[in-house]
Amino acid sequence: MEQVELGGLAVSAEGLGCMGMSSVYGAADWDESVAVVRRALDLGVTLIDTADAYGLGHNEVLVGRALAGRRDEAQIATKTGMDFTTGRGRLVVRNDPERIKAAADASLLRLGTDRIDLYYLHRVDPEVPLEESVGALAELVAEGKVRAIGLSEVTGEQLRAAYAVHPIAAVQSEYSLWTRDPETTVADAARELGVGLVAYSPLGRGFLTGTVEAGALAAGDARRRLARFAEDAAAANRSIAQAAARIAEARGATAGQVALAWVAAQAPRLGVPVVPIPGTKRLRWVEENAAALGVRLTDEDLAVLDGLAGQVVGARY
Predict the structure, then answer these.
(1) What 3-state class would DSSP assign to 137?
(2) Fewer CB under 10 Å: which end of the chain, C or N?
(3) Could you tell me which residue ranges the NADP-dependent oxidoreductase domain spans (predicted)?
(4) Residue in 25, 54, 119, 200 annotated catalytic
């Protein structure tokens, strides 16, 4: 698979999001999840994305086990800052320097490695100056524990403030056919600074594949609480997946592959490297996703796909 540069870090042009292997989308099988990570490596997908919040550390342990014996084939991206340990599912964002450093050591232990290739602030802590949080990350780089720094879900102003402390390799944001927020919130700053965009949920949390029936989601599936998956909204949004499916049929591809190909194709327009990281816990989907970057979309295809975001019913959260 083609390589992309994120702040001097060479990664695969498509990554693998591992969150669903441990949380959010219902039950997952450990053995198959491990097999998915290893199959991704076989297919040339080397950017493996996790976080200490996914499954309260479970996901990092899983990724570490999956990469045992193959660590040098992968670039591990993990995150810190989201604290779900306060009980009752309550999220607290904590990015004080002491916690960041302790969290990095804990992540290294769970992952079974001596370095994190790309370490993100999962969210910005409003109670801690961003410059202090990035300063702590910079110290981890100086210590050799982290190779490159990233931020998740930030504005252009926040990116510039962070970059003034230490170079930022990538911003991770939700970005897809039906979520275009980064184009107006952070893309200009990323282009000016040479920062890449890592696109999470590039398949619209599975909806854009046309294979997800919103009304049939399992009780433990967090998508049941999202506005776009509510009954009326999902029915209206189905036309977006159908539009991708029509193009897919003409290209000998699937709707999901078209959705991923569209995300990757935005790099020249945005002027930044764009790396989609579709998540899956199934072998069949990791193989399909890895083939998506081979789909070539015409200018006519792109014009149709570009207009779909304006049809979305329901807020992102």
Answers:
(1) helix
(2) C
(3) 15-308
(4) 54
